[in-house]
Write a structure and sequence with these properties.
Elements: H1 2-21, H2 26-43, H3 50-73, H4 81-88, H5 91-106
């Protein structure tokens, strides 16, 4: 649980910052994923359990969802639920999401 808490302390501000800056790319998603994986690793007292790795991957994906939500909320005009889902189904969202999850888990292998 400590690993997940530490990962959340990195994921939420990281996702908010990326969404606010409108700066989502593959590289930033990988860096955020590595940071979340590192926080989970250190927070769990350097345990490499699969449960900690899964928690880090899920929290990394949540940070990308937070970034997209902040980005969508800051766009001018009102977005419908269908437009938000369409925004999240684009490759510009799916690829960084998967990259962040893979980077968070890969951090445990380093």
């Amino acid at each position: 649980m400590r690993g997940a808490g530490s990962a959340l302390l990195v994921a939420v501000p990281g996702g908010l910052l990326l969404g606010w800056l409108h700066w989502m790319s593959l590289l930033t998603a990988i860096i955020l994923g590595l940071a979340i994986g590192s926080a989970a690793h250190v927070g769990s007292r350097r345990h490499r359990d699969v449960s900690v790795q899964i928690a880090a991957a899920l929290i990394a994906s949540a940070s990308i969802v937070i970034a997209v939500a902040v980005f969508a909320a800051s766009r001018p005009g009102h977005l419908s639920a269908q437009q938000v889902v369409a925004l999240m189904s684009q490759a510009g969202f799916v690829v960084p999401l998967l990259a962040a999850m893979i980077a968070a888990v890969a951090r445990f292998r380093l």
